[in-house]
């Protein structure tokens, strides 16, 4: 089945409805409930359901659910990577513009750097290198996006800041890799 099969004819699924505006907290809660991943609301504190301010938390839960399901259904380590092509095609139905894809890539890398910092062993000498490398890539992608899609002076300042940040994180990654190399393989 393809995206076109899902979206053609009398199907209620459309590509433009969810990309035109952010989902509400109530819609996110409903989607999570349908996926059996909704947090249980405290009805004394939330008698009318989720509040608009709950949307970022609910988005995070939905994102985790989607990524966990994707990891189960599309294993990039398989040969051939079964399901990966369709997963990417489905993802790209909402992230159609180059600018949006670049924003999403940069955001994903920032989340990766955060996850490395929060969840990985901070005593591991490779952790700082991995975090800095992810932030180097995030800032480089953001700089690329700004260079291609920006026109006003504020965007040019943001471009300069992204390039400076990418350079600083790159230096940090290089230094951290050198330290990790000397610490983990001192005889080589």
What keyword list fits this structure?
188 residues, mainly alpha, 7 helices
Q: Layout of helices and strands, plus pairs?
A:
Elements: H1 3-7, H2 25-34, H3 55-73, H4 84-94, H5 98-119, H6 126-149, H7 153-184
Helix pairs in contact: 2-3, 5-6, 6-7
Order of helices and strands: HHHHHHH
Rg of Cα set: 20 Å
Oligomer: single chain
Helix content: 55-70%
Shape, per Cα inertia axes = globular
> Quick one: biggest sheet?
none
Share of β-strand residues? under 5%
The count of strands amounts to 0
Given helix and strand content, the structural type is: mainly alpha
Cα distance spanning the termini: 52 Å
Q: Please report the number of helical segments.
A: 7
What is the mean predicted local confidence, pLDDT?
Answer: 86
Would you identify the regions where 5 or more consecutive residues have pLDDT less than 50? 5-18
């Amino acid at each position: 089945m393809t995206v076109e099969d899902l979206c053609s004819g009398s199907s209620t699924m459309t590509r433009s409805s969810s990309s035109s505006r952010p989902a509400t907290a109530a819609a996110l809660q409903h989607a999570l409930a349908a996926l059996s991943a909704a947090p249980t609301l405290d009805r004394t504190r939330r008698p009318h359901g989720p509040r608009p301010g709950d949307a970022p938390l609910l988005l995070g839960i939905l994102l985790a659910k989607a990524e966990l399901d994707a990891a189960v259904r599309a294993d990039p380590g398989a040969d051939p990577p079964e399901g990966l092509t369709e997963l990417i095609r489905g993802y790209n139905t909402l992230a159609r513009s180059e600018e949006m894809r670049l924003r999403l890539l940069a955001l994903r890398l920032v989340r990766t750097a955060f996850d490395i910092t929060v969840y990985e062993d901070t005593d591991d000498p490779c952790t700082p290198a991995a975090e800095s490398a992810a932030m180097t890539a995030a800032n480089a992608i953001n700089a690329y996006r700004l260079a291609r899609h920006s026109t006003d002076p504020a965007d040019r300042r943001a471009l300069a800041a992204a390039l400076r940040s990418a350079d600083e994180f790159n230096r940090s990654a290089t230094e951290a890799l050198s330290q990790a190399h000397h610490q983990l393989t001192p005889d080589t």
